[in-house]
Every structure is written in C-alpha cells, then in structure tokens.
Design brief:
Chain lengths: 248, 260
C-alpha cells in the first residue's frame, strides 16, 4: 500500500504540493490527472523517494521512504519500477543492454537466464527486433516501451507510470493500456499512472484523482469523475476552454 | 549592505555544500573500488576516452611547452654562458610542476568537461533517476569507473608530458643554443631526481581523483535542461582548475617542508 500523508513540497517560493494526502490500495490502478505543472510527476517522484517532501510523509507498505536511509530506500525500490515520460534509457547501451541492466547489476541471474527474461519482455512489447539497436536509433514511443520492458523485467509489485501513452500512436497506446491492465489483473501489481489522456485514464483506473494547483480537487471512481459536478474536473474532462482553469 | 552580505553568505554556503557533496561522492566511489574487476570493461572504455583520445593534443601541448621552456630559459642562460645546463632546467621544471599541471589542464578541458556534460545530460534526462529507482548505485556504476580511469591516466599523461616536453627542449637547444642532443640528454638525466618524479606523479594522481570527482559531482547536480548542463560543465572546469592550483601548491609545500 502507498500512502502520502499531508505532503507539502516547495520549489523556491512556489508550492507544488499542498498538504496532499492519498492512500492507494494494493493491486489498485490509481490514475492522477491534471494540467501540466500541477505536480503530478512530482507526486510520483515522492512515491519513489526521488524527492522528499518539505512536510508530511510517504509510506510504502507502512515504511516511511522519505528521509529513509539509503539501504531502506533501496529495499523499498526493489519493489517498484517507474516508466519515465522520456524513457530515460542509458544512451550508450543497446536496447537489450538497457533492459538487462537491472538484472546484470543485481548479479542474481546467469547470462542465459537474463537474455531469456529480457527477450520475453521485449517480445511482449513487440520490441524483439530492436535488441541490438541503440536508443538514438529508435523512436520516442519505442524508447518508452523499452523503458516499460526494463521495469517489467524486474517483476515489481508497484509500477509508477509517467505519461505512459503520450507520443504513442493509438494502436500502441492500446497495447500499453492493455498491458497495464493485465499487470493489474493477472499479477496484482499496484499501478500509479499520471496521464493527460482521459481515454486511457477511464480505461485503466480503479480510481482517478484530479490534481489542481497542488491539491486534489476530486478523487473518485472513473464513473463519478466522468459525471463530476466539480467545475474544475468537468472542464478538464471535457477539455473546455471556458471554466475555472485559467488557460495561460 | 545586508543584501550583499546575504548574497555572499549564500554563495559561500552553496560552495561549501558542493565541496561536501564532492568529497562524499569521492569517498563513496573509493568504497566501490572493491568492484573494480567487475567494472573493468567500463574502466577500459573510460581509459580509452581519457588516454588514447587525448594523446594527440597532449603531444602537441607538451612538445611546445618544452620548446617554450627551452627557448625562454635558454636565452636567459646564454647571457650568463650557462646554456649547457638547459636540459637540467627543462627536466627540473617539468617533472615537479609543469608536467602534472599541463596534463591536468588538458584533461580538465577534454575529459573533465566531457564527464560533467555526460552526467549532466543523464541527470536532466532522468537517466540518473531511473538508475536510482532500479537500485543501481550511481557511484558504483558511473562515478567509480571515471575516477579510476582518470587516477590512472593522469600520472601516465604526466610521464608522457615529461618525455614530449624534454624532446621539445632538445629541439630548441639544438637549433637555437647549438647544444648537441647527446649533451642535452646527458645533463637532463643528471638532473632527473627520483624525488621530483614521485612528487610530480603523486600530484598527478591527486589531480586525477580531484578532477574526476569534481566533474562528476557537477554533472550529477545539473538541473534546468541544456542551460544547466552548460553551467555544470563550465563550473566543473573552473572548480577543477582552482583545485589543481591550490592542491598543487600544498603538495609542493608539504614535500619541501618535510624534506621528503
């Protein structure tokens, strides 16, 4: 279970997250929606322990990750993986080496075993032809899928997705969305998905939280979000220009 | 006035914080030297970048450093009819001070800046975050191989600068001072003291540790996209240069004071 308790985070004078509290149950797919710059990615980085809150605490399975020792953080991070918006691939490693990197560094498996595990995940994401390609030779969408393969190869219990379908064509978006759904239903993975894509959000979510100006304005089931009477949520879901969300 | 003091104070705090971060990074990376065999491929790659790739530029700079030394000192010494000792002056200047300093300047410009830019780009493109989430130690995976490579390559480059610099001095001694190569090298070897060589090599080794840890630290603290990477690269070069001057001075003083 993931829990954020009264998390506040400042960047200089700007308050990115204001007293944010979220509880995400085991096996749940929790989607965070909101405008750009409202703190969605910052929330993911707090869950992964990459950022520490200025106030409040973040608990993973009841253990506080913020301010934890390196060893505790490493132990908690072994349970989780994160799909980055840009892919975040190591640019001097081939696709295959990128995906095998966490297994090679952990030194728990033999070379053949690692190759098999990597190929299995690459096939799952239709990337088996790209094993020897370098990140500079593949598209942005492929990079994102490679990043997902690198996460899946570790079999994590928690997966954090930062805009998993942005920059992907509709067919590949469906592949990724189905895969996220499958991870949830078949392996009981807890997923936290940050997205702008409302279609993906409604398809994936058990619950959706709308983040606006660092605060959650509504956290509810997809159905209730779709029929929300909250003007901020309504405007965002409908993509309307007129409304309380100022278009800058 | 208070505003200026406030600004000066925050600059001081920032620099102290960076110094602490760099020292910790160096210590953590030294701890991972136990994994040096497992990281041999990465270290060899870094040795190639720091060594083979930079040797053409080191050759040119070292040769001309020796030639300038020979010319400047030779002209002055000729006025006192002491030009016969030019080989000794060239090697004495090179071994203890000029060679490690010249090698450091070249490696700061070519390798240190590249390290800062490379790690800085990885930082702003979230690759460092990705490694952290995968529980891969950045110090072990990225920093240690770079520090090991530069700590090895700096003394090697220093020896090479000594060799090339003395060749440059010999060319000038022959062409401008009419001193034969045989006489030049005879005097040079007479003045080649073991102490000067090991002090020079020790300096080079310390410079190698310092340059690589400063450059990696600057890269790892880069933020704000391409602008931040540029700033990190510039700061790495400036900080490394200052470190080389200060540490170089104190190593020299230490050995003189204790007569080592």
């Amino acid at each position: 279970m993931i829990e954020l308790r009264n998390v506040t985070r400042y960047f200089g004078d700007f308050t990115v997250l204001k007293d944010l509290s979220i509880k995400i149950e085991e096996g749940e797919t929790f989607v965070i929606i909101g405008m750009s710059g409202t703190g969605k990615t910052v929330t993911l980085k707090h869950i992964s322990g990459l950022l520490d809150p200025d106030h409040g605490e973040v608990l993973i399975d009841g253990i506080r990750i913020n301010g934890a020792s390196r060893r505790v953080k490493e132990r908690l991070r072994r349970k989780m993986g994160m799909v980055f918006q840009s892919g975040a691939l190591v640019n001097w490693l081939s696709v295959g080496d990128n995906v095998s990197l966490p297994l090679v560094e952990r030194q728990e498996m033999g070379t053949d075993e690692i190759y098999e595990a990597v190929m299995k995940k690459l096939k799952l994401l239709h990337l088996d032809d790209a094993y020897y390609k370098m990140p500079s030779e593949i598209s942005g969408g492929m990079k994102k899928r490679v990043c997902l393969a690198r996460v899946l190869v570790r079999n994590p219990e928690i997966i954090l997705y930062d805009e998993p379908t942005s920059g992907l064509d509709p067919v590949m978006s469906s592949v990724i969305n189905n895969l996220i759904k499958e991870m949830d239903s078949e392996f009981g993975v807890t997923s936290v998905v940050v997205t702008h894509d409302m279609e993906s959000a409604f398809f994936l979510a058990d619950r959706i939280a709308m983040l606006y100006n660092g605060e959650i304005v509504q956290c509810d089931t997809p159905e209730n979000i779709r029929n929300s009477v909250n003007p901020v949520v309504r405007q965002f879901v409908e993509g309307a220009i007129q409304g309380p969300i100022a278009v800058e | 006035m208070i505003e200026k003091l406030d600004r000066a104070g925050s600059v001081l705090v920032r620099n102290m914080e960076f110094a602490g971060f760099t020292i910790l990074l160096l210590l953590k990376s030294l701890y991972y030297f136990k994994n040096i065999f497992g990281k041999r491929h990465e270290i060899i790659k870094q040795l190639y970048y720091a060594g083979v790739k930079t040797f053409p530029v080191i050759s040119i700079v070292a040769l001309f450093t020796g030639m300038v030394l020979g010319l400047q000192m030779g002209i002055e010494m000729k006025a006192y009819h002491q030009e016969i000792h030019i080989g000794g002056v060239v090697i004495a200047t090179l071994t203890r001070e000029m060679a490690p300093f010249t090698a450091a300047i070249i490696l700061i410009a070519s390798v240190g800046s590249a390290m800062a830019a490379e790690l800085g780009t990885m930082k702003v493109s979230e690759e460092i975050d990705a490694l952290e989430i995968m529980s891969i130690s950045v110090e072990k995976y990225l920093v240690m191989p770079r520090i090991a490579a530069l700590a090895v390559m700096m003394p090697v480059a220093t020896v090479y600068v000594n060799v090339m610099g003395s060749i440059g001095g010999a060319v000038v001694a022959k062409s401008h001072l009419n001193i034969s190569y045989g006489l030049y090298y005879h005097v040079l070897l007479e003045h080649l003291h073991f102490k000067a060589v090991y002090v020079g090599l020790l300096k080079a080794f310390v410079f190698g540790l310092g340059i690589s840890s400063i450059s990696c630290a600057q890269g790892l603290r880069a933020e704000n996209g391409a602008l931040g990477v540029g700033r990190a690269t510039r700061d790495a070069v400036v900080a490394s240069f200052i470190m080389v001057l200060i540490i170089g001075y104190y190593i020299t003083e230490f050995f003189f004071r204790f007569g080592l």
